[in-house]
Amino acid sequence: MELGTVLSNHGVRFRTWAPEKTSVSLVVTEEPRTIPMDSERNAYFTIFLDDIEPGTRYFHLLDGIQLRPDPVSRSQPDGVHGPSQVIDPSEFKWQDQDWSGISAEEVIIYEIHTGTFTHEGTFKSIIPFLDYLKKDLGVSPIELMPVAQFPGERNWGYDGTYLYAPQNSYGGPNGLKALINACHLKNLVVILDVVYNHLGSEGNFISGC
C-alpha cells in the first residue's frame, strides 16, 4: 500500500513506516487532536479518517514523544520543521491534454534556478519569461534545479529532505503544476533535476523513525 496520504470520496488514509518505534499517532494541528494509528506488519502504521479535508495540516507523534512531519509529505507549507499538509492531486485543473512532447532534434536545455531566475523567486514568476526562452533563445526543455523541500527560502536544492513536496517558498505543488502547464501550452518541456541518493541534514528525521 502507498505511503503518505491517499484521498478518496470517503476520507483520507494516512500511512507511514517507523521501524524503530512502538507507536505512532496522527496529530491534526488545526483542532488539535491526537489519534493513535493502527499497527500493521513490518513496522507500518495507518489510519483512515472520514472528516479530513484537503489543506489539513498534521504531524506524526512517535512513541508519544517526538513530533515529526510526514517523511513522504506532498506539501510542507511552513518549511521542513512545520506540519505536513494533505493535498488533493486532482484539485489542479490541467489544460495541456493535447500536448504530446517534442522530438529529440528540438532539445536545447536551459537550466533554471527557480529562486534566482526572477526577483520573486517562484514557479509562477517564471511563466512571463517563457516566450523569451522559447522564441528569443530557442530553448526547450527548461530544466529546474532541485525543488524538493529544503530548509530556508532559496538554495541550490541539493539538501532537500521531502522528496515529494515542492519547495513552499517557490509556490508549492500548485505553483509547480502551473509552471509545467504553462510550459506545455507553449510546447516547452520541463525536466526536473532530482536528488534521490542523499538527503540534507536539517529537517531530515528519517533516521529517527
Task: List descriptors.
209 residues, alpha+beta, Immunoglobulin-like, 2 domains, 4-stranded antiparallel beta sheet, 3 helices
Structure description:
- There is one protein chain.
- The protein is α+β, with helices and mostly antiparallel strands and about 210 residues long.
- Strands 3, 4, 7, 8 and 9 form a 5-stranded antiparallel beta sheet that branches. A 4-stranded antiparallel beta sheet has the order 1-2-6-5, with no helix packed on it.
- It is elongated and about 60 Å long.
- About 10% of the residues lie in helices and about 25% in strands.
- The two termini are about 20 Å apart.
- A hairpin with a 3-residue loop joins β7 and β8.
- It folds into 2 domains: about 5-90, Immunoglobulins (Immunoglobulin-like), CATH 2.60.40.10; about 105-190, Transcription Regulator spoIIAA, CATH 3.30.750.90.
How many individual domains? 2
Q: In the CATH scheme, what's the topology name of the largest domain?
A: Transcription Regulator spoIIAA
- Helix proportion of residues, in percent? 10-25%
Count of beta strands: 14
* CATH C-level class of the largest domain: Alpha Beta
Gross morphology is: elongated
The secondary structure category is alpha+beta
Uncertain ranges: none
Number of helical stretches of at least 4 residues: 3
Major sheet, described briefly? 5 strands, antiparallel
CATH architecture of the largest domain: 2-Layer Sandwich
Q: What percentage of the residues does DSSP assign to strands (E)?
A: 25-35%
Summarize model confidence as the mean pLDDT: 93
Helix and strand element order = EEEEEEEEEEHHEEEHE
CA(first)-CA(last) distance: 18 Å
- Rg, Å, rounded: 19 Å
